[in-house]
Amino acid sequence: MKRDAALSFIRHRGTIVRTFNGQFYVPINGSWYRNISSQERIALSELYPSIRSIYAVEGHMIAKRKNPTQPIQRYEKYF
Q: What is the spatial distance between Cα 6 and Cα 12, in angstroms, rounded to a whole number?
């Protein structure tokens, strides 16, 4: 998924984002996310390079990538 498509997908479908360093972020609004443990705010565009997986409301993983150089791929099991 290209970057713009991935950002749009995250804004519309994702409710929890996990990064490669194990941190979880939840949306504040369409452009900003908050770290669950430290309560720090970060823009989605800054968070994007470190996103490992995206989860939906039900807790199901809906997209992932294995390393930061790969594009985000939809996790087909839940589509």
A: 10
Query: Could you tell me if 72 and 51 are in contact, meaning their C-beta atoms sit under 8 angstroms apart?
Result: yes
- State residue 5 phi and psi, 5-degree precision: -65, -40
pLDDT digits over 1-55, tens only? 788 888 888 888 888 999 999 999 999 987 899 999 999 999 999 999 999 999 9
Task: Say how many domains are in the chain.
Answer: 1
Q: Is the pTM of this model over 0.90?
A: no
- Structural domain including 42 reads 3-78
Among left, alpha and beta (phi > 0; psi -120 to 50; other), residue 34 is: beta
**CB within 8 Å of 43: residues ≥ 6 apart:** 31, 32, 33
